[in-house]
User: What shape does this take?
Amino acid sequence: MPHKTFFWFIFPTGLAMILFIGLPIVSSFFQSLHIETQQVLMEVENCDPFGCQTNVRVDVEATDKLREENPLGRFNGFGTYLDRNHLAFDEIGEAWNISSSMGEFKDIVLNLPFYKALLFTLTFCFAVTPPVIFLGFIVALSINTLAKSIKGLIVFGTILPMIVTPLIGSLVLFWMIDSQGIIGASIQILFDDPNLSLKASSNLTWITLIIYGIWHNTPFAFVVFYAALQTVPQDPIEAAYIDGASRFQRVRYIVIPHLYPVATFIMLICLMDNFRVFEPIIGFSAEGVAQSLSWMIYQDLRNENKMLFGSAGATSMLTILGIAILLTPVLIRTWKEFRTER
Amino acid sequence: MKKLLIALLFSFVSASAFAGSHSPCGVTNGSINILANEFTTYRIFMDEVKSCAGPDADFNVTHSVDHNKLQVAALSANPAEFSAKLVTNGSITPLMNDGLIRPLDDLVAKYGANLNENQKITIDGKIYAVAFMANAQHLWYRESILNDLGIDVPSTYEEVIAAAEKIKAAGVMPNPYAGAFKSGWNLGQEFVNMYLGHGGEFFKSGSAQPNVNNEKGVAALNVIKKLTELSNPDFLTQDTNAVKEEWESGNVALMHVWNSGAASLLDDEGDQAIKADTRLAPSPSVGGGSKPATTLWWDGIGISTNTSDENAEASFRALVGAASSSELANDNPNATVWLIKGYTPGDTAGPVVDAANRGATPYPSFPHMSLMHGALSSELVEFLQGNESAEKALADVEAAYVAKATEQGFL
Amino acid sequence: MDTRLNKYSKQLIIINSIFILFWLTISIFPFIWTLWGSFKVKADFFSRAEWTYALSGFNTLIETGATTTVKAYIESWTEGEFWRASMNTMIVTVSVVSISLFLGTLGAYALSRSTYKYTFYILIAALIFRAMPHITLVSGYLFPFFQLNIWGILPTTIIVLVAINQPFTLWLLYSFFKTVPKELDESALIDGCSYFQAFRYIIMPVMWPGVVTAGLFSMMLAYNDFTVTALLLNQENYTMVPKINAYLGTIEYGGNYMWAVSSVVSATAPLFMIIWFFQRQLISGLTAGAVKG
Assistant: This one.
């Protein structure tokens, strides 16, 4: 395709992406390299309905003056990236010096917020993605064999975990897994342990989150596989059938290779989305025992009265970096395919 | 500094003096656009503001749970998206830090004749907000359960723990205590209560240096730990709503939650036997201290700096009309604890008044307090799970705070 | 289609049916539970005392005089102004889906047919763009949007949702266009069609499975998004999800949970039609592709 035609085809989508995603990424990156200007504090007397007391407040005029000199704030290089709430190199170095065994070192490092979050994020990502792809494929194959008349209903049922607003979906599920709820109480009977609570132990909470992740994401893989199955050419299958290939062989040697590009796509998206896991943590109130990188960003931007853009920007950049590393193998394969096709 | 204001606040003033206050406030020009938190009492208040502004006024309001995240960006723009914002002593600081709300002295002089003196929030001698309601956390108990076991209403946390242990030992219920210990803001708030109750100071005086890793901090954490051991094992996932559910299901005999929950905890839905047995009590003190281990909150009106004087005046007139309407307060006496002149407190306001009289601390309004609260929110969990010592948890809090405060230019 | 291919052994049919039944139970049970519970009062559906209350309606009977009630539905639609939110959602969803698909099909077609190296880089850039957490993006928009005075209105949210979803749409459609044989449109080009004509007359008729799938996901995003809508819309323009979240209340003050639950059921009903349409289009797409191929 000539460059000019290509340009006009790609222009609208490219413009939208650059404007609303590209520029903000660049701006977040710059903000993450800066910290706020010094805030000038002063002591004042405050009176409210409960009495008067001395307090400190920011001297707005003096601080504004400093801000005008440095509108972006003070340049801090990668300082924010390296501070305790992010990569924490100093703390790790110190931990290495003071700890007597690898176990102790590991404990100290995993107590730092970033590494704690990274551990959960990676565990979740790798525990959820493979089952999602596998289950999605199997469900798609199964449903594809059904009679047309009932397909619609069953497709709808299958997609439900994805379409019910996660906000409420997790609220309802959270209530169901309560030790007094239907699932929680059934599990107690099943394991014959009246004190078992899915919310109290951190291991059980992790398992709950992972199962929820699989349940919630499988419909996505299913939909894409199901749609792609509709494009599988019938001629080679028929030919294979005439040659006496079994059903399994036909799936293995004709259907699966045809679905490779789509499977790559599903894997990319699933890895990425699971790396950014966040909603279930909030929905299941699991902040105490399970924190992810996205949750850290949320914490910086929404749990404070003031948004901590620098810190959130740094974590966002680290998230992107993490995803880039995670996806490299898949991308290298895509690159090879791309090259051979040219 | 102890003031008689509180007593004055609830003094009964003849309602007839304000009979005319229900008529529209005479807003003729200027547009009103208000940003506010989302809950029932604010909606009642806003209805009054709207009727005060009159049917012809250009009146808009956005109730948003995310109001705190929107406020700085919304009021920084020039002209600002909103002409007014409902603030609390927690959310006013970021606006003050950036100079986004204006001094109201001239407007108060013009339209604030019916305001109580203590409704005026003054900072450095200037009025920046007008408060209209107050809130605090306090103790709730089940009268029959305490009576059956011969327990007096606890007035200190030590007594609360003893009472809960007695209830547990008697086999009445396995987890008799409940508090909003959900990791995040709630857990941070519990520490703030307990630390202030022990007489702690969050910062070294006059600076933004943290000051929680000390004996008082450790003592506060140990009390919290004891309380959580008497709570449902899921305590780290329980916010105020969940605690209320536990209460309404009869699983709990003692709890420490917001006074604003009274309306829904005592309404006619759910198990009436439990509701009839529910009693409110003052917030307990802790560690031999005299003041209750709770924080006082006010909600008030702030007017945007970056809006035209015309809009500011219109917004202020309408809002202050509601904030000085004794009818609004007396028609909804149990909706909240109103600070409005002429309000006769409802049955449930007692504990808040008591806390104020006994010198409970207002929630600290240091510019860097929200950073400290954020650090407390995330770093205390491991201690409560028994994975680290109190000293280590508090050291982590200070380290997390220092990193954030450095980024924000406070250190 | 050859019927022999679709003949299955009895064993396979049985295993398959059992599997699907099992899967369906898992996937729809929470929804059925919600549907049933939406006709109860809060003390039953969210009971900490005994979960069977949600089945029997123990407290519902005490409070309303019957074991089921539609009170939550009536109140949320009238008093809670849910009708306004559903109208806004409809506007947002329809706009987001049509604009996303329009931009996405054009872009993805070009990406799948160009053989220059930069197409690969564009795809990678799109992927990196998608890796950016939404919450950071949205928080960054706030100040410029307030300053430009475009905060709070529907068009802003629509454009943001379209842009945020473009990387995904591009990649999905790119993968699908890859499965459409190149020979199809190349022959059209040789016959003298322009690229746009080839796209319009050759590709569009066979691209439906991919487009319908992409449309479904765009719709889901617009329908279910919370991060963007909660921070970029004002009260009047709230779509359903921020509205439902508003029903849930805040830390110090309880909300109206049953309004939220009944609203979720109301919000899911129209999706049923859409999914029905979706899967029928998929199958018609198959026949169209087979004929042309």
Q: What stands out?
A: Confidence is low (pLDDT under 50) at residues 1-23 of chain B. Chain B is about 40% helix and 15% strand. The longest strand of chain B covers residues 126-142. The interface with chain C takes residues 37-41, 60-66, 69-70, 73-74, 76-81, 135, 180, 185-186, 239-241, 244-246, 248-251, 258, 260-261, 264, 269-271 of chain B (CB under 8 Å).
